[in-house]
Design a protein that fits this description.
Blueprint: H1 30-33, H2 38-43, H3 51-65, E1 67-71, H4 114-117, E2 118-122, E3 126-131, E4 139-145, H5 150-160, E5 168-174, H6 183-200, E6 202-206, H7 212-226, E7 236-242, E8 258-263, E9 282-287, H8 297-309, E10 312-315, E11 318-321, E12 324-329, H9 333-344, E13 349-352, H10 357-365, H11 375-385, H12 395-410, E14 415-418, H13 428-442, H14 449-461, H15 464-471, H16 484-492, H17 496-504, H18 509-512, H19 515-523, H20 530-540, H21 552-563, E15 592-593, E16 596-597, H22 615-625, H23 629-636, H24 642-659, H25 663-690, H26 692-700, H27 711-717, H28 721-724, H29 727-737, H30 747-755, H31 770-774, H32 778-785, H33 788-811, H34 820-841, H35 849-857, H36 860-880, H37 885-907, H38 913-949, H39 956-971, E17 1004-1005, E18 1010-1011, H40 1015-1068, H41 1078-1091, H42 1108-1135, H43 1137-1192, E19 1268-1270, E20 1297-1298, E21 1301-1302, E22 1312-1313, E23 1316-1317, E24 1327-1330, E25 1336-1348, E26 1358-1359, E27 1362-1363, E28 1365-1372, E29 1383-1384, H44 1393-1398, H45 1404-1413, E30 1415-1422, E31 1431-1442, H46 1448-1456, E32 1464-1470, H47 1479-1492
Parallel strand pairs: 3-8, 4-9, 5-6, 5-12, 6-7, 7-9, 12-13, 13-14, 19-24, 25-31
Antiparallel strand pairs: 1-2, 3-4, 10-11, 15-16, 17-18, 20-21, 22-23, 25-28, 25-29, 26-27, 28-32, 30-31
Helix pairs in contact: 5-8, 6-7, 6-13, 9-12, 10-11, 13-14, 14-15, 20-21, 22-23, 22-24, 24-25, 24-27, 25-26, 25-42, 29-40, 33-34, 33-37, 36-37, 38-39, 38-40
């Protein structure tokens, strides 16, 4: 029985399309985002159980839920086994039975019964399987009872075996014995099967044995596993075999599980048993308690496939039922039954022609009309394709085959014949997918459901080639809004090819990217996504309880962390009235995600206002934060502000990479960031070539879409050095550096004018603006001294003067009381302090105090300035205290060093010195790492040396000298004199350590005054120390310096150009006067801002707010050049030698395939034409023979003998299409069809097979022996008696009215045989009453209630010029089809029972009047599957049409529509030929539409 913990299959979210069709959490709720466990939130990587825990769980779960079967009663078989042993009727020997089975009193009955004498018990064979000696990877296996519920097996495969829910189920069936296939056909089949399984994520189900078609599948998988594409994903191949027919199965028995179980393939000794195929990945071994009995697994396999095909797989908002396809190769009688069952259940079948036997029989007759598939033709085909078995076929067997083949061909929309060389079917994978789409296309559905379902299948399979060729055709024009749900699914499932396809077919990202869509996309981020983890942290910090819903301002908060605080939030926090709301789903839609319809996301109210200015930007960010390269590339190509977008992507990726723990993801992020930097460079290069000035405007244009930042600022924050070092960017920075001066001025001219500014009137320097070039006087002076280059050099000269004065005071003029020069230094420093305060409180952008402080401290040189100023204040304080005069001078001397270091920042502007300073800074980092290594050796040697030489030195300063200082000096050659005792002299040391100026003497012999320490040890330590420090560490330092130099030297120019911006920005905003005269500027600023409170006039050369028209024109120009860049990139890609070689190889392969296909098509065409010609000749010969015989008998012959000429076939060498939509109704198939289905509905009764030619009663059918069946019904008083004799029916008056019951037929008087009425339409294969009420005709009433379909304005809708109808239909909850509201009636009643359930009681009388006024559209026989030889259904269809929408009766009808049965649904439905209605009801509806000349 099914275990309690099992949930409905498909309820687990899988990778790809997995999960429930409808969940419990509403979309947009945070639990959806926070569902992952804490470990996942911390590590962002799924944590799996180890193998031991998995095996333990499996070992406990399987015996509780999965059983095997054992024979518990030994009954000796009359015949011995093949090995000559006595066996039971079950096939096992006495020793292989349980002990209780051999007891004589176990069962009283001596007859062995499979149902009674076989019991279930916990299985003892499961675990991992390894095929000995084949080197194959490990597989899974389990032994199960044939009565195991499919849900338990599915749970085992998905939950315990870890299989992902499939996107497709491929059931491969056919011959179980080895058969011969053409080498080319074998190659095509193997390649195509593996391709469709690997690309779509399918499960391939076979019989699992190493023979026949199963062996072909296994070899196909083995070829794939050995190919280079194996890393792309494993092909799941499930073998379902019979346990009792598996050779060497004893090695698989392990009561606690085999981990692994070793299986030996022994084909030579297998006898009549079979070995498992080593290339399958999973085995389900079905046990019925017998040995050597084949076919046990077939019922369970059918139930399992049906169960899996009913499961729903969902991801990205698109839910699909798992499609199933049957692939047939060769095969015998069992294969025919499999095909028949598949077609009966609506499963599409792909028949591989040329594989032999049954497959070829179906393939050869599939294009024939059903009327031509006769018993004689079947006999002929069997004789040619089954030469060995043909003699065993009885007449009844041939009749059964004929009937089944007719039923199979009648559903030709489910058949796809794969012919080698057929145009458009070069591979089996295409044939399989086309078969599924063709079956879906033929399925009835409302509106566009069929096309939507086909598109869902294509997206689930990730086969964009199928979507292009089969779905996006002229037959179905797609509206962009109809593609939005699938666009969402493609984005979430990371299927860029489909995104590109949808964009090509009209989807506009600006219309697609709504607030609801973006929220849904962010709620479905990948579980391992770092951005998802950061969103969870933001939501966890929200004070709202319970857990808050995800909003776009939460996303904006994380994005601002990634982009930087310099940007504004991309999505502002909404007001309560602006909260985006999700609309409720439409009740008739089947596309559900977590309880909310995805399609409802795209139903917008007329007042819907876009919440964002750039949906393309939003989708680009969503793709970038998940590191999805292909999707981001497609979306970026659609963006407007493409340079800023590329730089922002680079910034986001680099910021995410700092927190990413996975090395592979980190490298991918950095590579993608570099790629987007290159794209920004590429587009900017195109812009700079066309127009330098407009390109520079793009650099400093304030982008509202990217948080009111600029391209240049984004590049600087992202540290995109390549972009900043671009010639166009550097030209802009140079332009800003020179201010209003011309960049052509020599530096010597500028310096000369600085020293003697009256030279400005001579025109020594030139200006960019003609106005300044023409005027003379103050304007030129102001323009000159406000240029950053002039301000820089003035400050440089001022700083040099400050340092010289500072040095002079320290060395020459440092008096007890401050001198004039020293006071000037104090004034100078005060001006520097004021300038630092101005930089702190007057940043380029408005921001808060905390942000201003953080922004100021982010610069290293500002920190150095603060340290120097604070140290100067400390030194000045000490200097002003007489007792601390000297310490003050020392502090000021140290402070002078810090001020001198500030010169390095000044010289970074130099193209010569700047790169060298950068190299020095990088080498300083190397020095710090080196000092750590050096300290280890210095301290270790120093402490050891000090401890060996000196005994109990207590002076701290001499301990430091001995342990550290002397060891450090030793590196540079100052070796201690007393280490080896040669230069030992007691006069140079203090014996007791009392002399403060001498070190303590080493250990010595007081008598002989000789060293007592081990000289050999100290010398050895010294040699080792010098070896490691002087040779190893110093050379390591040199190597590190060399590596740093080489590394930095390659990028020195880039680094210098990048850092140049900071200095230019600093001096561009600096007051023109140098210190100490800058105090005048500071005083003016203080008066303006503090006293007069005038707002600051900020010059922002690095930011420019453009007018809307100018900005739109600039962006359009950028988009145009972006397209040029992309085209150029594509051209360069095609010109690469590797690409050319690949293209040439593909063209050669295509040409070879086309030539081979043309040859095969030509030969196939000739064969088809010859076969058609032969058939025509044979038909003509029979026709002439009949004419001669008729003339000889002087009559015209009977109608029955007239032969039917074969239709012209393959006249142009083309293979006829099997799609019934392109074929006229077969006139020879006019007999009832539904009434001859082999399986009678709602019962286990099988009809006798009746082919078309044997339907008429007049046709002789000697072997016709149908079973008798009359169902027991609850209303026994209202039904005819049950019995297979005529006596109970003798009181019935057929062909007459009997009370309230009319037994007359609309087709006239019907015949009676043996007291039973005969169906006027012929044989059905079943006698008796069946499930009907009475023998003979069972009369029903079908009201066809219609009205015109109208639009919102009340006008009648039209299609193809014809008016469109709506019809009232009803549907039972358990039924897949809708129906007209009619059916059988109670005796003496006018209205059908179903109609009464749909109408209120008070409207019944009025509806009876409507029926009497209606027009009869049909009266006669109904081809119903419940009909039998003796009972059938006849109906009267009455049309009730409301032509006026204001009709009173129509309004009353709508008001009285009320289902009294909760399982009954009622609706008005558009009349269309694809409406999902019962077939006989569709025929009636077609007649009603024709009555009004309406569209159908």
């Amino acid at each position: 029985m099914e275990p309690p913990p099992l949930r409905k299959a498909g309820s687990r979210q899988e990778d790809g399309f997995g999960g429930p069709p409808g969940g419990v959490a509403a979309m947009g709720m945070v639990p959806n985002l926070r569902r992952s466990n804490s470990s996942l939130c911390r590590n962002r990587r799924p944590q799996f159980l180890n193998n031991c825990e998995k095996q333990a769980n499996l070992s406990s779960w399987i015996p509780e839920n999965i059983k095997k079967k054992e024979c518990v009663h030994f009954v000796e078989r009359s015949k011995l086994s093949d090995a000559g042993k006595v066996v039971c009727e079950c096939g096992y020997t006495r020793e292989q039975h349980l002990e209780e089975a051999t007891r004589p009193y176990a069962f009283l009955s001596k007859e062995w019964d499979l149902k009674k004498h076989v019991r279930e018990m916990p299985t003892d064979a499961f675990g991992d399987i390894v095929f000995t000696g084949l080197g194959q990877k490990m597989g899974k296996y389990v032994r199960i009872s044939q009565d195991t519920p499919p849900s338990v097996i599915y749970h085992l495969m998905t939950q315990h075996w870890g299989l992902d829910v499939p996107n497709l189920l491929i059931s491969v069936t056919g011959g179980a014995k080895d058969f011969h296939m053409k080498p080319r056909l074998k190659s095509i089949f193997r390649r195509g099967l593996v391709k469709v399984a690997q690309t779509t994520g399918a499960w391939v189900i076979t019989g699992g044995s190493h023979t026949g078609v199963m062996k072909q599948v296994g070899e196909a998988v083995r070829g794939f596993s050995l190919s280079s594409s194996y890393s792309e994903g494993e092909v799941v191949t499930i073998g379902i075999a019979t346990w009792g027919t598996v050779h060497n199965r004893e090695s698989l028995i392990h009561p606690t599980g085999g981990f692994p179980a070793e299986y030996v393939m022994d084909e030579e000794g297998q006898g009549h048993l079979t070995c498992l195929d080593s290339n399958h990945s999973h085995f389900i071994l079905v046990d019925d308690g017998t040995h050597g009995r084949y076919g046990v697994e077939i019922p369970l396999r059918a139930r399992l496939e049906k169960f899996i095909s009913e499961q729903t797989k969902e991801r990205g908002g698109v839910a699909i039922k798992i499609p199933i396809a049957c692939v047939v190769l060769e095969g015998g009688p069992g294969t025919l039954q499999t095909i028949y069952n598949a077609v009966t259940h609506g499963t599409p079948c792909v028949i591989v022609e040329g594989s032999g036997r049954v497959a070829d029989v179906i393939a050869q007759v599939a294009s024939l009309p059903v009327s031509e598939i006769t018993i004689g033709l079947t006999r002929q085909k069997l004789g040619s394709l089954f030469p060995e078995m043909f003699e065993t076929f009885t007449e009844s067997r041939i009749v059964e085959w004929t009937k089944k083949i007719q039923d199979i061909v009648r559903r030709r929309q489910l058949l796809t014949i794969f012919r080698e060389g057929k145009d458009g079917q070069q591979d089996v994978d295409v044939a399989i997918l086309q078969a599924l789409l063709k079956a879906s296309r033929s399925h009835d559905g409302f509106g566009h459901e069929n096309w939507d379902h086909q598109l869902k299948l294509a997206v689930a399979w990730n086969r964009v080639d199928i979507a292009r060729s089969e779905i996006f055709t002229d037959e179905r024009p797609w509206k962009p809004s109809e593609l939005h749900p699938m666009m969402t699914a493609a984005l979430i499932a990371n299927k860029p090819e489909f995104v590109k396809l949808f964009l090509e077919n009209g989807v506009q990202l600006t219309e697609f990217g709504t607030c609801d869509t973006l929220l849904y996309l962010y709620e479905n981020l990948e579980p391992c996504c770092l951005f998802r983890y950061k969103l969870q942290k933001v939501l966890a910090e929200e004070p709202e309880r319970p857990a808050p819903r995800l909003r776009m301002h939460h996303v904006a908060q994380v994005l601002r962390e990634l982009l930087g605080d310099f940007s504004q939030p991309l999505y502002p926090r909404p007001r309560s009235s602006d909260q985006p709301r999700l609309l409720l789903p439409a009740p008739n839609l089947k596309l559900h995600v977590q309880g909310v319809s995805l399609r409802s996301l795209y139903k917008r109210s007329p007042r819907h206002v876009a919440f964002t200015m750039d949906p393309v930007r939003d989708l680009l960010i969503w793709a970038i934060v998940q590191n999805r390269r292909e999707l981001a590339e497609i979306i970026w190509a659609q963006s407007q502000d493409c340079i800023a977008a590329a730089l922002a992507c680079s910034k986001i990726l680099k910021q995410l990479s700092r927190e990413e723990e996975d090395t592979d993801s980190l490298e991918e992020m950095l590579a993608l960031a570099d790629e987007y930097e290159q794209r920004a460079i590429g587009v900017f290069t195109e812009c700079h070539r066309k127009d330098e000035e407009r390109a520079q405007k793009l650099l400093v244009r304030v982008s509202e879409a990217w948080g009111k930042t600029t391209c240049l600022q984004l590049a600087l924050e992202a540290k995109d050095m390549k972009f900043v070092s671009h010639g166009g960017v550097q030209a802009f920075l140079t332009k800003v550096w020179w201010g209003q001066l011309s960049v052509d001025n020599g530096l010597w001219r500028v310096v000369l004018c600085m020293l003697a500014f009256p030279l400005l009137a001579t025109g020594l320097v030139s200006f960019r603006e003609r106005r300044l070039q023409a005027v003379r006087g103050l304007a030129r002076v102001r323009a000159f001294f406000s240029a950053p280059v002039v301000i820089f050099h003035l400050n440089t000269l001022s700083y040099f003067a400050f340092l010289c004065l500072f040095a002079y005071v320290l060395m020459v003029d440092f008096q007890p009381s401050p001198s004039g020069c020293e006071c000037l230094i104090y004034l100078w420093l005060f001006s520097l302090v004021c300038e630092e305060l101005r930089q702190l409180f007057c940043p380029p952008d408005e921001c808060g105090l905390v942000k201003m402080v953080l922004l100021y401290l982010s610069d290293f040189w500002n920190k150095l300035d603060i340290a120097a100023i604070l140290l100067f204040i400390v030194g000045l304080t000490c200097r002003l205290i007489p007792a601390l005069l000297y310490p003050g001078r020392v502090i000021l001397s140290l402070d002078f060093i810090m001020f001198c270091l500030r010169l390095m920042h000044i010289f970074t502007i130099s193209k010569t010195l700047g790169p060298k300073i950068i190299i020095v800074k990088r080498m300083m980092k190397d020095v710090f790492f080196f000092l750590f290594l050096l300290a280890v050796w210095v301290v270790s040697f120093g402490v050891a040396k000090q401890a060996i030489l000196i005994h109990n030195e207590r002076r701290v300063e001499w301990i430091f000298r001995g342990a550290v200082y002397q060891s450090y000096l030793t590196i540079f050659g100052q070796i201690p004199a007393y280490v080896d005792g040669v230069n030992f002299n007691l006069d140079q040391c203090s014996p007791n350590g009392t002399d403060p100026y001498k070190p303590k003497c080493p250990e010595s012999d007081s008598a002989r005054q000789e060293p007592a320490f081990p000289e050999w040890l100290t010398v050895l330590l010294l040699c080792l120390y010098l070896l490691f420090t002087n040779i190893l560490l110093l050379n390591l330092l040199i190597a590190m310096f060399n590596y740093t130099f080489q590394q930095v030297q390659e990028r020195t120019d880039q680094i210098w150009k990048f850092q140049r911006h900071g200095l230019i920005e600093e001096y561009e905003g600096r007051p023109p006067a140098p210190p100490p005269f800058i105090l005048l500027n500071h005083l003016h600023l203080f008066l303006q801002r503090v006293v007069l409170k005038n707002p600051a006039e900020r010059r922002k050369p690095f930011k420019s707010k453009l007018e809307k028209n100018e900005e739109a024109a600039l962006l359009s120009w950028e988009i145009y050049l972006k397209e040029n860049y992309l085209q150029d990139q594509q051209f360069q890609q095609k010109q690469r030698p590797e690409q050319k070689i690949q293209d040439t190889s593909e063209k050669v392969d295509t040409m070879v395939d086309l030539l081979e296909m043309a040859r095969l098509k030509q030969s196939g065409s000739v064969e088809q034409r010859l076969a058609s010609l032969e058939e025509q000749v044979a038909q003509m010969a029979r026709a002439l023979h009949w004419v001669v015989r008729a003339l000889r008998d002087s009559g015209f012959g009977s109608e029955e003998g007239v032969p039917t000429l074969a239709p012209q076939k393959a006249s142009e060498g083309q293979d006829p299409e099997l799609d019934d939509g392109q074929r006229v109704e077969d006139p020879g198939d006019a007999y009832h069809v539904n009434a001859r289905h082999l399986l009678y509905p709602n019962s286990p009764v099988l009809r006798f097979p009746v082919p078309n030619e044997k339907v008429p009663w007049e046709t002789e059918f000697l072997i016709y022996d149908p079973p008798f069946y009359s169902a027991d019904r609850k209303d026994k008083d209202l039904v005819d008696p049950v019995g297979d004799t005529w006596e109970p029916l003798s009181r019935i008056s057929f062909n007459a009215v009997e009370g309230h019951l009319d037994r007359r037929s609309f087709h006239g008087a019907y015949a009676l045989r043996d007291g039973f009425p005969l169906n006027p339409m012929g044989r059905t294969g079943l006698r008796g009453r069946g499930d009907l009420v009475c023998f003979g005709p069972n009369h029903t009433l079908q009201p066809v209630i219609t009205r015109w379909k109208r639009n919102q304005d009340g006008a009648i809708c039209r299609k193809s010029i014809k008016k469109m109808l709506e019809v009232l239909v009803v549907k039972r909850s358990l039924s897949e089809h809708w129906a007209l509201p009619g059916g059988s009636r109670e005796p003496g009643e006018t209205l059908p029972r179903k109609l009464k359930q749909a109408l209120r009681h008070e409207f019944w009388a009025s509806f009876e009047n409507l029926l009497r006024q209606g027009a009869e559209v049909y009266r006669g026989y109904v081809d119903d599957p419940r009909n039998t030889d003796n009972a059938w259904i006849e109906t009267v269809a009455v049309s009730i049409h409301f032509a006026d929408q204001s009709d009173v009766e129509l309004k009353r009808l709508n008001s009285h529509l009320c289902s009294r049965d909760p399982g009954l649904s009622i609706r008005w439905q558009l009349v269309d030929r694809r409406i999902p209605l019962y077939a006989n009801h569709k025929a009636i509806l077609r007649k009603a539409a024709a009555l009004f000349g309406a569209y159908y």
